[in-house]
Amino acid sequence: MSSITIIGTGNMARTIGARAIAGGNTVEVMGRDQSKAADLAKALGGGATTGEWGTAPTGDIVIVALLYDSVVPVVAQYGDALADKVIVDISNPFNATFDGLAHREETSIAQEVAKAAPAGASVVKAFNTIFRHVLEKGRPDVFIAGDNAQAKASVEAFIESLGLRPLDVGGLKMAHWLEGAGVVTVGLANHGVGNVDFSLSITELPVRANG
After folding, report:
1. What is the pTM of this model?
2. Would you say 107 and 175 are in contact if contact means Cβ atoms under 8 Å apart?
3. What element of type H or E holds 88?
4. Distance of CA 126 to the CA centre of its chain
5. What mean pLDDT do residues 140-165 have?
6. Other CB atoms within 10 Å distance of the CB of residue 34
7. What angle do CA 60, 66, 68 make, to 5 degrees?
8. Alpha carbons 119 and 147: distance in angstroms, whole number
9. DSSP of 153-209, one letter per residue?
10. What is the tens place of the pLDDT at every residue in 57-71?
11. End-to-end CA distance of the chain, in Å?
12. Mean pLDDT of the chain
């Protein structure tokens, strides 16, 4: 199983933390508000601990569960404390009308995190195409992107411990398109599907026998 640190105390932090504990992983929670972090760790149970904001995380995998505009500044603030860690960005940089991305360039929050991260750290984009309650109650596919094969393998193993299927979409530049897929999920929720009780998934045709 994996050793996980979650930076953040919001709904996604709680949901991922709960599934992580259920999957037999160790979880550390870090938050700007130490009391909120302690409350979340207590609520998660399963031996979840609380770390001090800004100090070196105990987890090998560090999940940054913050609003998109806080992700890069926080990674920069942590600095060398994140050296040699696998940093997982789950954010969606939606614009004000939720029909596009907040950044206009062909980049992503994950790619900007990689620029701010210390040497030896690896960045993986994951979980951003999944509505929180679907992650809590369902078995959605989890799309991931990253440049470091070993880092992706560790994140894939963690996702599998949650009882979910990881699907690798390629290098970290693909995080831009995963963020675009996040926009697509909102469009579907508002139009074609009409609710948020779904997730994007991959359907594979059965393998045909030769002949």
Report:
1. 0.95
2. no
3. strand 86-89
4. 4
5. 98
6. 15
7. 115
8. 14
9. HHHHHHHHHTT-EEEE--SGGGHHHHHHHHHHHHHHHHTTS-SS--B-----PPPPP
10. 999 999 999 999 999
11. 42
12. 96
Say how many CA atoms lie within 13 Å of 50 toward its Cβ: 17
What the block records as the tokens of 202 is 């991959």
> Rounded CA gap, 18 and 48, in Å?
10
Question: Which tokens sit at 105?
Answer: 């360039």
Q: Which residues make Cβ contacts (< 8 Å) with residue 151, sequence separation at least 6?
A: 86, 122, 123, 124
8 Å CB contact between 125 and 89:
yes
Q: Which helix (H) or strand (E) holds 150?
A: helix 149-161
Phi, psi (deg, nearest 5) at residue 69: -75, -10
Helix H or strand E encompassing 55: none
Nearest CA to 187 out of 108, 101, 117, 105 is that of 101
d(CA 135, CA 129): 10
Two structure tokens written together for 205: 């045709």
What is residue 17's three-state secondary structure?
Answer: helix
| Phi, psi torsion values for 150, nearest 5 degrees | -65, -40
